[in-house]
Amino acid sequence: MIKDDIQKQILVALAQGKKTELKVLRYISSQIKYEEINKQKELTDEETVTLLQKELKKREEAIEMFKKGKRDDLVADEEKQLIVIRGYLPKQLSADELNKIIDEIISASSQETNMGKIIGLVMAKVKGRTSGATVANLVKQKLNLP
């Protein structure tokens, strides 16, 4: 399980003195525990991936804000955290693979031009291997929507 891997890596990072990695892994571990308490059950790997994606998005948004504020020191720290989190996510789809999946779904639902439904179908198929924003942008382009 991803949760177990994170716990093992906390010990490794502690032993090796990797402060940034240790900070991120401890934070993620605590978020997983909070989520388990809220749901009153142990998280599955799929639920853990969803949580990690949320954390990834938070870091990406923070990087954008720090860049606007010209805080390069904080940008560098957030980018290091991104690398650690991405290590626990499934392999991301390439643009070609994603375009192929979107094309298949659009052609299968030939009369369907509801962008929301198509995005939902694509997201169900790719499950955590790409961001919703990326899917939305590609679907919008393929449907020639403004």
Describe, in plain words, how this protein is organized in 3D:
The chain has 146 residues and is mostly helical. The chain has 2 domains: 2-86, Orthogonal Bundle (Hypothetical Protein Yqey, Chain: A, domain1), CATH 1.10.1510; 95-142, Arc Repressor Mutant, subunit A (Orthogonal Bundle), CATH 1.10.10. The chain is 77% helix and 0% strand. It contains 7 helices and no strands. The chain has helices at 2-16, 19-39, 45-68, 72-86, 95-108, 115-126, 132-142. Helix 5 crosses helix 7. It is globular and about 55 Å long. The termini are far apart.
Describe the secondary-structure layout:
Layout: H1 2-16, H2 19-39, H3 45-68, H4 72-86, H5 95-108, H6 115-126, H7 132-142
Helix pairs in contact: 1-2, 2-4, 3-4, 5-6, 5-7, 6-7
- The shape is globular
CATH fold category name of the largest domain: Hypothetical Protein Yqey, Chain: A, domain1
Low-confidence sequence ranges: none
CATH class of the largest domain: Mainly Alpha
Describe the oligomeric state of these chains in a short phrase.
single chain
Quote the average pLDDT.
89
The radius of gyration is 18 Å
Helicity, as a percent range: over 70%
The main β sheet shows up as: none
